Amino acid sequence: MTLMKILKVIDKKYLLSIKLIFFIINMQYFTLHQFRRNFAADVFQIKKSDYGYGTGLILFTTFFTNIITATISDKYQKSKAVLISILLISSLIFQLFFVSVFAGSSIAFWSIMLMYLVFLMNIQPLFDKICNEYLTQTANVDTKTYGKQRLWGTIGYMVGNFAIETIIKRKDPNDSGKTFYDYTYLTVYKIVTTLVCVAMIGFLIKPKTTGGTRKDLFKSWKQLIKNFDYMFFIFIILLTGITRASLTLYLTEYQTKVLKIESYDISNYPNFFQIILKPVNKNPISTTTVFGTVLELFVLALSEQIITTFGLSIPLILAQIANLSRFIFYYILKPEGNPFAYVCLIELLKGVMFGLTHISAQQIAIQKCPKHLKTTSQMIYSGTFTGLSTMLGGFIFGKIFTTGENNISDSTTQTGKNFRTCCYVNACISTLALILFCGKMLIDYVKKRRANKKTENVLDTGDLISDN
Fold it and tell me: Which residues of 424-455 are buried (b: 16+ CB within 10 A; e: fewer)?
């Protein structure tokens, strides 16, 4: 057996191709994710209230552009070609952020951001669809193992965050070593990760045509909108996405300006512990992000067992409980001392919420749609979770975070009060989602019991007639 054949056997057994692509594609996708709010303010002087509103409107727009991309992909069965094109185009647009003539221009920022996100937001749902088709077409593999593949995307997200913070973080020697960020080298990072992504997808993914192409671009996806169960599921995802958006938009600012989390002084620790703790202590923002993914990795690794044991609905309920708990803990957390460790512990709940939501919702999105609408369903689910929800979150929480910003000299104190209000509103939204979803499950259970009883009565009547 040749080396190539051995590699192919190993690849099919362990699904190495999908894992590697998930890893690198998330490093590419999340290039500007963690520091995008800071980047907008530092380079283009965008106000935090304007950022929330503007990003929300753009992501709302991407919900519809994503559907157009999905219909094209589904109709022509060219997901791989579409994904590679989008990766390259989004990377080229990203470079425009660093053209010196655009610096400080809000018009330039929003124009580039619109073009960038219109393409970028297609990447993950397109690859999710490719991944599920790959799993379906691979012998002895079930789509329940999707979570184990996505786990490597989360690892890529973690590695990328550490790499990016290391690349951009600087100390100002003229200002007592104050931390600042130099975003210049993100251009190189984006180009390298994009080229690696394109090469991997081009050589490692060999899609098969599955049939069921569309006859038009709009008629088919409207079938989903008329499906009550599917739309109820999307509404729950919308509520979950709104709560996600608030912390995505404002948590880093709260951590750096209000909580002021910093590295701990570990100089008095034994050398052995210093060596272990130094990597996580050096970059506190990235470390909190890692804690936000630790339990997500655990959930994704056990996704097949979780879905087999609990089904698809129970994980969504547990995700809402974790989400609610996260906001309650942030609400009661006081900005005293250096709450670095407490923030890390709270962010563990984020991983539970994200992990359980993705392993169940991604499967539900596929199950509740016709075979030829898989990409469209993924785009609607993804667009709702990130696009529609961010628009609503931007308006709701943008309004909250502008409260009192012009009337109080101590903006840090006001930001802290606004963040607690934000947590309170989010807790209410999470509670609503939890009640609605549990109520829907109860109603469905009662309906199923009644239907089973009717079936049993019909069978009993048939037995009596046959006996007579």
Answer: ebbbebbeebbeebeebeeeeeeeeeeeeeee
Query: What structural domains does the chain harbor?
Result: 16-205+217-462 (1.20.1250.20)
pLDDT given for residue 240 in this prediction: 94
Q: What is the pLDDT of residue 135?
A: 83
Determine the pLDDT at residue 209: 56
Using an 8 Å Cβ cutoff, are 385 and 240 in contact?
yes
What dihedral do alpha carbons 383, 389, 390, 395 form, nearest 10°? 140
The residue type of 227 is: N
d(CA 134, CA 127): 10
Helices (H), 77-122: 79-95, 106-120
C-alpha to C-alpha distance for 319 and 309, rounded to whole angstroms = 16
* pTM for this prediction: 0.77
The continuous run of DSSP H or E covering 392 comes out as helix 389-402
Q: Give pLDDT < 50 ranges for the chain.
A: 464
Q: Give me the pLDDT at residue 220, please.
A: 63
pLDDT of residue 214: 53
